[in-house]
Every structure is written in C-alpha cells, then in structure tokens.
Amino acid sequence: MADTNSKIKALLESNRKFAETWETPPTMRQMRAAQSETGGAPVVLTCLDPRCVPEQFFGPVARVPVIRNAGGRATKDAIASITVLRALARSSTVLVVHHTDCGMTHLTEESLRQEAKTRTPDAAAEIDTVDDYGCFEAADFEKTIEEDVLTLRRAKVLAGIDVRGLALDTVTGIVTELEIDTPLAIL
Q: How far apart are CA 170 and CA 177, in angstroms?
C-alpha cells in the first residue's frame, strides 16, 4: 500500500506541475457547436497500452476523442461509447488503431482466466461470464484490426459511420492504414 501511495503522490505532484501551464479548454457546449460546423472529429479506438497514445503518434494536432480498452477491441462498450460520441460530438469516422507487441498477444483466453481465478477464486463464475477477453496471436495482428473494423461496420447503431483500420508499429512509431473491404453480406 505504501508503494501505491507513493506512486499516486508522484502522479499528483506531476499534475500540479502540468496545471501550472494549463489552458482552460472550450466548454462542451462550445465544442459541440464547433463540431456541428466542421463535421466532428474522428474517434480513435485503441489499446490502453501506455505506448499507444494517439496524442503522441498523431502529433499535437490530434485533439480527438479516444476510446481505450485492452487490445483496442470493438466491444459492446466501445460501440456504446462511439454511439455517445456520435450524438455528442457529431463524429462520423472511427479509426481502429491496434499496435505491434500488444499485451493481448502475450496472453491466451485460458491463461488470463486461470490467472484471474487463481488471484480471485470467489469470482470464478463472474470471470467465466465474459465471452471473449480479446486475446490474439501476434501473427493475427492485421486480422484483428480487420475483425474489429468489420464488427463496427456491422453494428446497426453505427450505420453511416466511416470505419478505418490502422496499424501502429511500436518500434518505428509509423501508423499505416490497412485496406479493408466490406463483404457484401454486411452492406
């Protein structure tokens, strides 16, 4: 607990230094008005890995809404968040950004479930209610981007949104767009 407290104190101290140069951003009302005039900023769905920060890899002009989860996967919660952003910020584009050396490639569904059950045996039934934690093989990196793009394109609540798939190379920092065709069955 003492180690956790010192880490939190360090974060808060860092925030104090950050706040010294803080410029108050526009209000939500002002942002919504600007978005309705410009068509809304793209939404970035990406991983929670600290190496995968859109404000870094897209540069300082990247003032975009970001949804982060383990693996940057197109989950029900991600779809709900995109739906909110569409209503709130007029977002009409989603960029699915996965990255190389993702932590989800270092786990399997079974190993993750087993570790969670070992750590919290009383939660075994709850752990088993999760259909898919989103683990994948490193060799399937581009395939997972395609799967998530197609999942979002299939979501009826997101009809009309342009969904693109991007790959971030964590060694070079280069982001590349993948060409992902939509099967006729989805159209």
A: 15
Angle between the 28-38 and 76-89 helix axes, to the nearest 10 degrees? 90
- The pLDDT tens digits of the residues spanning 6-31 come to 999 999 999 999 999 999 988 888 88
How far is residue 166's CA from residue 97's CA, in Å, rounded to a whole number?
A: 5
Q: What is the pTM of this model?
A: 0.87
Phi, psi of 29 (to 5 degrees): -60, -45
Phi, psi of 182 (to 5 degrees): -95, 120
Inter-residue contact 108 to 53 (CB < 8 Å): no
Gap between the terminal Cα atoms of the chain: 53
What are φ and ψ of residue 65, in 5° steps?
-70, 140
Residues 53-79: b if buried by 16+ CB within 10 A, e if exposed:
ebeebbeeeeebbbbbbbbbbbbeebb
As a residue count, the chain comes to 187
Cα pseudo-dihedral 2, 6, 8, 11, rounded to 10: -170
- Give the span between the Cα atoms of 112 and 106, in whole angstroms: 10
CA distance 63 to 44: 10
Residue 85 has pLDDT above 70, yes or no: yes
Query: What's 160's DSSP letter?
Result: T
CA-to-CA distance for 22 and 168, rounded, in angstroms?
29
